[in-house]
Fold each of these.
Amino acid sequence: MELSSSLLSPRRQTRRIDVGGVPVGDGAPITVQSMTTTKTADVDGTLAQIYALAAAGADIVRCTCNEEAAAEGLAHIVPRSPVPIVADIHFHHEMALAALEAGVQGLRLNPGNLRKEAEIKEVAAEARDRGVPIRIGVNAGSLHPDLYKKYGGATPEALVESARNELALFEEVGFDDVKISVKASSVALMIAAYRLASETFDHPLHLGVTEAGPPPGGLVKGTAGIGTLLAEGIGDTIRYSLTADPVEEARAGRQLLESLGLRERKGLDLIACPSCGRAQVDVIAVAKEAQDALEKLHVPIQVAVMGCVVNGPGEAREADLGIAAGKQKGHLFIRGKIIRVVPEADMVAALVAEAERLVDEGVEARMAAADAGAEAEAEEDRRALLESTGADPNRTAEKIEIIRRHADN
């Protein structure tokens, strides 16, 4: 970390939770979150946005789960996402249960919206059994009416009591795998609420100024609230809430953490798919080999390592450069366009060589230098893979049947 982080207040000690392999709290690196703006039922559109967010610096992405179609979409999205997915639950606990069945790595529940104690405890018990953490997402704009009346408005004390009440219900079923947020659109209220929360709970805190608005005003509000608390050692994961492309949220979060010395600056940004049922190589091993080789070049580009050519180039089309496996070959692509097909054994070497050329010559020049038959060969490999692995290698249809049963209850 940079020297600047040592000049800030020491970070508050918290418990640690695990969100799909990403640690949050207890001294783990502060993570950046954002939320998709697509319809979750639009699987391809949502995945494209998730990959763009990951490339921009998001460590965790939240998707709305407000209807059966959204839950079914999550069943397709989760196994193909490069980062953990958190389902945002609104008013129906059935959607939380369906999202868990879809395989999400986290839930966000708003105590002001989901109010029936039996339903809250049912969701917490299911999350407990699956090892899935929940964020208690208190929002000043949707505070429970009883608390609003008790405190005469959305005060810091009211927001914290809302979180405390929800936590008590979780504890009744033996669930404490929790992070907490107490958001408000007022920067001053948000800061005061999180200060009180940090004194009240030892759970990780998710920071954010809700409904901050469009840039530049939204960026100013978000930075004022989040930055103040981070400087005081409060906060374990953050999200800017902007009326804008969510990629701007991820970039702002990453830049804020870097400017405070809380995350290291990096030139290379490598993303990789999670190795689903159609993956043709050991994605983790190839990604590590590629990262080790590319980091030595100090190239400021976004690189994607994808397990299969069926979906890989399209899902990672925001990346400057990528490679997708399939039929014992590596399919090299720039901004989603296949430019070359190489033997599988040469995947990493080809990726490194193309990265150097890309930096030296630029995107347009390298796309113009694409091999003439590369796209046609890749298309043949896609079709062959679909024939050999089928249309549902992740057995999503089975999950969807269970999701529909939850939605019908």
Amino acid sequence: MTAGGRRGGPKVDRKERAGLVRAGLPVAQPGMTVGLLGGSFDPAHDGHAHITREALKRFGLDRVWWLVSPGNPLKSEGPAPLARRMVQARQVMQHPRVVVTDIEVRLGTRYTAETLERLIALYPGVRFVWLMGADNLAQFDRWQRWEWIMQHVAVGVIARPASRMSARVSKAAERFERARIPAESAGLLAHLPPPVWCLVNVPMVNISSSAIRASGAWRR
């Protein structure tokens, strides 16, 4: 059922909606399923757009929010200016169910766990799904409070067919092995209580931000 057809649960009233809009934050109704795709998007490209469309379809999401971060704490070199990356992201991802947002800057958060804590508090009743690639799952145990993330939001992992192995043998996958649901049940992911995660194979577009930068097509 689409977001507009949902029943039950309190709705965001006019005053609350106005407050979110004034703060530059996306609006979501209780009961909606929202995928969160975080990253520096330096730059955003068709590969990001492709996995977003696949996530909407495979995980049965009402919305996907692109969380364009100020920078990656795990990387020593900073990205291009945020405003420039936001413009590029909005040009690349034009979809009525996708929102490109700089919400981490507006919330003053740096790490994913901090951002998720704030979002859960700001949007009661919204079912969030953290979206990541298999390469991120392979190093997920390096993230600050990664176990807390797994225990508080559903996690959707999008993998190239050839990259499944590194994700499946990762520390996070082993630690939460019993919380994994099969790809055939991916549409249920957002509706199950955490910890729960699902890995789906998606044919990837052969493009990357690092390759675009290396070609000189995008300069920081």
Amino acid sequence: MFYLKVQHFGQSICINGINQNKTEMINMKNITTKLLTLGISAVLITGCLTACKVNNSGKIKVDINGEEVLNTEIGIGTGSWKVAESMAVTEELKKYFDEAISKLDGYNHTPVLLLGTQVVAGTNYCFLCTSTIQANNAAKEMKLAYINVDPSGSANFIKDTVLKLPGVGEGGEKVGGWAYAESTEITADIKKVMEKATETLTGATYEPVAYIGSQVVAGTNHAILCKSTPSVAELNGATTYVLVYVYQDLQGNCEITETTDVVLSID
């Protein structure tokens, strides 16, 4: 309107209007850029927070960078199995074990060592035990026996699995000369056997915890239950159980011939 009457002032007004429009456009552009930046930041933050969460399945953990966190516990289940630091069967554990096993018919189980625990609805326990059938001349077996002690303190049997040796059939009968040990004690002689056999071992350390069985050949084959721990820090591994087979020749030389993982699991 002013442009028609006063060209100079109209021009000035138009220029001012243009300048004002440019300013408004720049301001809008800045606001839009900030909103986009905030939106991207929100997505990134949400992503980071999500990456920090534990997978609902309980099987995979990731850190803030989305890298998988290695599990340092053994076993998969409702909770992870943990290797027992103290393997002694205390009076309290013996009471729980006996209560759970008393509900079985036909078997005699004697706990030897506590191997591990699992926190669930209460606590699951895994024991190494000797087992015989309640019959005359029944053969002895070595088993992993699992029990549960619920929050009220009641103990119940879950299952057992035979710790099999080569050449030992179902029921513990000997096939090929293998036999379960009369005692699971790690004697001074068995310690020496393991020390000789592991002199050149790299990558892991074996701690003998129970003597399982033997076979007389031209020398002796030994089966020894050990705790296995990676000796290389970068491996970030967990302590597990392994059944180590050692051949001892007639001259007393010892070597590891085979290893078998012993996994704690009620699955």
